[in-house]
Amino acid sequence: MKINTEWVNYRLIATGNGEKLERFDKYTLLRPDPQVIWEAPYALEKANGIAARYMRSSSGGGNWRYFKTVPENFYVQWRNLKFELKLMGFKHTGIFPEQAVNWARMIDVINGANRPVSVLNLFAYTGGATVACLSAGARVCHVDAAKSMCEIAKKNIKLNSLAETNARFIVDDCLKFVEREIRRGHRYDAIIMDPPSYGRGPGGEVWKIEDSIFDLVKTTKQIVSDNPLFYLINSYTTGLQPTVMKNILDINFAEIKHSVDADEIGIQGEDGIVLPCGCSAFMTF
User: pLDDT (tens digit, 9 = 90+) per residue, 221-278?
Assistant: First the structure.
């Protein structure tokens, strides 16, 4: 299990009974988490100062129930980087704190390259990895099917006073974009892939990770540069273990010398319990 502890104003307070109690800056939130099948140390819903709780609906989805005023936008900081958050549908806040493990590693690898680095960030969401790579001096192509997520990523770049000219934003289906990049002859030194378990592209394209991830990695191989740095795959899908991600990379890049570090990633709770948050396979060349 890999855990990063460099958050300035985010903390996981406690977990149990299907929920996690977290504090983002001044705001304490209670959200459901399917991994949390153990008993809570106390009644989390009765904790002092909860600003909002995400309540699931029996018919699917859910909604936020507010107990205090939460501004439309608020902020958290990791190292010297800041990120804009907002309470969104499906319990999301716009950040996945466990990904700080990968941001730290990306920054180290890019800094150690001592040369210009181009990064392709697929399923890029609100740009945590994009901001991390830009902060290390890389150029990043940020691809996500949701225009709203790209807009938040742009705000995060401005928030950190990073060069907007070093970022390119694409609202598109990831596979279709990669296929166009192949035809154009564009290549990248690093690829980040943070796919959902299930989703739809802007044109209604269906994505299911078990059916599509291997072929997507195989396709992206054609846009990897001659002197690559790293390739990262994240998975939040139950059943896709770290070794599955490692095998996908090992098979697709068998003829290129590489090393894959695959493991669970998680967050250390103040109650002493570690919350598992999926897995990552980080390949370096």
Answer: 999 999 999 999 999 887 789 999 999 999 999 999 999 999 999 999 999 999 999 9
Question: Rounded CA gap, 95 and 35, in Å?
Answer: 18
Q: What total of structural domains would you count in the chain?
A: 2
pLDDT digits (tens, 9 = 90+) for 91-135: 999 999 999 999 999 999 999 999 999 999 999 999 999 999 999
Q: Do 138 and 69 share a structural domain?
A: no
Domain interval for residue 141: 97-284
How far are the Cα atoms of 13, 64, 274 from residue 269, in angstroms, in the given order? Answer: 6, 23, 6
Q: Label each residue of 163-174 as H, E or C.
A: CHHHEEEEECCH
First to last CA, the chain: 22
Specify whether 273 is located in the same domain as 134: yes
CB 279 within 8 A of CB 248: no
In a domain, 114, yes or no: yes
Do residues 111 and 79 both lie within one domain?
no
Same domain, 163 and 70: no
pLDDT at 108: 98
Taking a C-beta distance cutoff of 8 angstroms, is the pair 236, 197 a contact?
yes
| Cα–Cα dist 68/142, whole Å | 35
Domain boundary residue among 51, 85, 119?
85
Question: Contact, 138 vs 119, CB < 8 A?
Answer: yes
Same domain? 108 vs 237 = yes
CA distances 228 to 20, 121, 189, 225, 267, Å, are 38, 14, 4, 5, 30
User: What is the pLDDT, as a whole number, of residue 207?
Assistant: 75
